[in-house]
Amino acid sequence: MSDYINVTEIFGCDVFNDSVMQERLPKKVYKELKKTIEEGKELSMEIADVVAHEMKEWAIEKGATHYSHWFQPLTGVTAEKHDAFITAPMENGKVLMSFSGKELIKGEPDASSFPSGGLRATFEARGYTTWDCTSPAFVRHDAAGGTLCIPTAFCSYTGEALDQKTPLLRSMEAVNTQALRLIRLFGNTTSKRVTPSVGAEQEYFLIDKEKWLQRKDLIYTGRTLFGAMPPKGQEMDDHYLGTIRQRVSAYMREVNEECWKLGVSAKTQHNEVAPAQHELAPIYAPVNIAADHNQIMMRILKKVASRHGMRCLLHEKPFAGLNGSGKHNNWSLTTDDGINLLDPGKTPHENIQFLLVLTCILKAVDTHADLLRESAADVGNDHRLGGNEAPPAIISVFLGEQLEDVLEQLISTGTATHSKKGSMLETGVKTLPDFMKDATDRNRTSPFAFTGNKFEFRMVGARDSISSCNVVLNTIAAQAFKEACDRLEAAPDFDMAVHDLIKEYATEHQRIVFNGNGYAPEWEAEAKRRGLPNLPSMVDAIPALTTEKAVELFESFHVFTRAELESRAEIQYEIYGKAVNIEAKTMIDIATKQIIPAVIRYTTVLADSINTVRAVGNVDVSVQLDLLNQCSVLLKETDEAMNRLSEVTGRILNVPEGRERAVYCRETVVKAMEALRRPVDELEMLVDKEMWPMPSYGDLIFEV
Ligand code: ADP
Ligand code: MG
């Protein structure tokens, strides 16, 4: 790698983007394809053939030998199957490189082993991947050589969504339709599309690969299952935004370069709160592209770490007692001509529209708080949500002091007469206050915060796809907009009707607004009093997917059918049960083969020392005796907890699959795991470090 990176030159150099298409495709073909991309017009096979041919020629120039339909099944990671471009050898033994429109548009991976939650019986293994031409294809370079990756959606033979992308695209349509209706009411006749824009800030940990190799828990589960706190944790706040170490800087530089080549606009990088924790944020993009880019980014973060002798941990809570990793999903709604519906505007009219959009979103989030919470449910995230350093598992909205003040005046007096100081924004309606554009002290503890011109949803886990939460955000916003438009379109006096509606929504959904400290224990009690749902575990959250309220919402906007929702709930339960089973078995393995033998060795050393020292004469051996005693007591506790964990883990597969098994895992197995961890972590503090069979937290996070 050279020292100098010419960013403008390399940016997007491996992407079949608009400028490449414009340059390489015949004019007519380019125009047709653009229509498909921008207006969703169907693509003819003739056009697809030409596009496929040019795409292949371009990819081969970039060094690609294979192509792959790249998709996001419900496993949480991306999937791909590679095909070489070669055709069958000709008589002279030579091959041609070919790629047809049909191959571009449609793929048929053997889908039987992807989770479908009963949607597709295994004997009906068919699933189709179809090209999502709104997200550009790219050539990825790795040990396998160059591969042309074609972003696709993945559906069953009968059209049910088996992936993350299909519902995301459907939800984008839903919110587009309703948001357009809304802005038309305010006199906008020019915008053609409203698209959710998302910027996903990605947190991760970096640790040394040699040390990682000595931790079976990290290898099998992505998180540490044992580990005592080091003398120093994150309490000094000296890591957050601290100077980035050289080894990490070199890593980040290469991550950026790889991201840029694939058109991922990696922009902000910094050290996070916990030692060894970092963050990378791209510039926001249309949500389906942002979702693809986030997957690409996670893969790059992992791949480059390997090259630098490190491992990148994307688990939500790799280390108990230290900050977990999340993904802050910054979400806004933007028109094709650049108007952000969440931006308080410059004219009075725009400000009224802004207040309506804002209160619609309050209504949406209050009505569907359970669904939004569910969208961030993930096995690893259970350890992060509700912890003392992460957003709690209760959904609330942070608006900032001034916006909240505006809403409160509206609610209490029906008219707002004053506004807190600042640069004024005029609303132009007498009964509404002029309010200022503010980015007040941004509340870091809120799970859903308004940050000036976007909402930041902070619950999503670091490993998770951002698709689920955006499907929910888009659809619940669509529903609120629809209800508002239904009312406003029928109203005789538009101005009065808007005013009443804003007041009504602000009043009815005020309970969801919370500007205080979301980490404070009092908040939990207060939230309960307000009737807000508190769903601390993934298992508690999953039922939100299949309530009548959810089915009605998603079916009415054609985002999910009831069957699709039920299958997703099934898959979530399955994933939970499997993950806990793996973690429990890993704990048993480590305790049996590594920890108990190490403690026995240490107690033997102590016993030998006691005998040897005593043989010398009348010397005090009380220290050794005391240590031996403590270790032996904890060893016994460990053994008992181990037996209990083995017993309950052994029964997992006897419990009926689905919800029942997930509940059993959560109620019984996870508790037994916690009970085993306690004595082991105490032992780690007593046993000679030389004899402890794995690197400690301190070794892992301070010695990268
Ligand atoms: P923070 O202070 O939380 O790090 P930043 O200003 O760095 O906030 O932005 C974080 C993310 O939000 C970035 O990915 C950025 O591109 C994205 N973002 C900024 N404006 C918008 C917007 N209008 N809509 C969606 N995302 C946005
Ligand atoms: Mg940030």
Question: What is this structure's SSE topology?
Answer:
Blueprint lengths: L6 H4 L7 H7 L2 H13 L5 H17 L2 E8 L7 E6 L16 H5 E2 L19 E5 L6 E5 L2 E12 L8 H21 L8 E15 H5 L2 H6 L24 H16 L4 E6 L5 E6 L2 E2 H21 L2 E4 L13 E9 L12 H20 L1 H7 L21 E2 L2 H13 L10 E2 L9 E2 L11 E3 L4 E3 L9 H24 L3 H15 L12 H10 L7 H4 L6 H9 L5 H55 L5 H29 L8 H28 L10 H6 L2
Parallel strand pairs: 1-6, 13-16
Antiparallel strand pairs: 1-2, 3-4, 4-6, 5-6, 7-9, 7-10, 7-11, 7-12, 8-9, 12-17, 14-15, 16-17
The structure holds adenosine-5'-diphosphate and magnesium ion.
The site of adenosine-5'-diphosphate has 15 residues, from β7, β9 and β12.
Question: What does the model show?
Answer:
The chain has 704 residues and is of the alpha+beta class. Helix content is 48%, strand content 13%. The chain has helices spanning 7-10, 18-24, 27-39, 45-61, 101-105, 165-185, 209-213, 216-221, 246-261, 287-307, 348-367, 369-375, 401-413, 467-490, 494-508, 521-530, 538-541, 548-556, 562-616, 622-650, 659-686, 697-702; strands spanning 64-71, 79-84, 106-107, 127-131, 138-142, 145-156, 194-208, 266-271, 277-282, 285-286, 310-313, 327-335, 397-398, 424-425, 435-436, 448-450, 455-457. The strands form 3 sheets. Strands 7, 8, 9, 10, 11, 12, 13, 16 and 17 form a 9-stranded mixed β-sheet that branches. Strand 16 and strand 17 (455-457) form a beta hairpin. Helix 3 (27-39) crosses helix 4. It starts with 6 loop residues before the first helix and ends with a helix. The mean pLDDT is 90. Bound molecules: adenosine-5'-diphosphate and magnesium ion (MG). Magnesium ion binds next to loops.
